[in-house]
Amino acid sequence: ARLELGTATIGFHGEEKVTKSISALIDLERSLRGWTLDLRGEYRVIDQVSMETEYLQKSFDDGAEEDVSSLRFKAVWRWLIP
């Protein structure tokens, strides 16, 4: 876990290896413009194959800016060419 302080922001970053094959990550940031939440998870099936998910939420204090929310899933196959 890490607390980050900037001139106009405060943030938190945390990583946790839940099991040998499951890991989780969170990034939370508050700035003068609004806040951002980024949650990610990874399940590594084998060394070359993993399933990943990410949730992103951006909320702005200014009504002129549109809030953003997204959820993404993906399967990753790592293939190295010799």
Q: Would you mind describing this structure in some detail?
A:
The chain has no helices and six strands. It has strands spanning 2-5, 9-17, 22-31, 34-44, 49-60, 68-77. It is elongated. Helices cover 0% and strands 68% of the residues. By secondary structure, the chain is mostly beta strands. Strands 1-2-3-4-5-6 form a six-stranded antiparallel sheet, with no helix packed on it.
SSE layout and pairings?
Layout: E1 2-5, E2 9-17, E3 22-31, E4 34-44, E5 49-60, E6 68-77
Antiparallel strand pairs: 1-2, 2-3, 3-4, 4-5, 5-6
* Category by helix and strand content: mainly beta
The main β sheet shows up as: 6 strands, antiparallel
Given the C-alpha coordinates, what overall shape results?
A: elongated
In whole angstroms, the N-to-C terminal distance is 37 Å
Could you name the key traits of this structure?
mainly beta, 0% helix, 6 strands, single chain, 82 residues
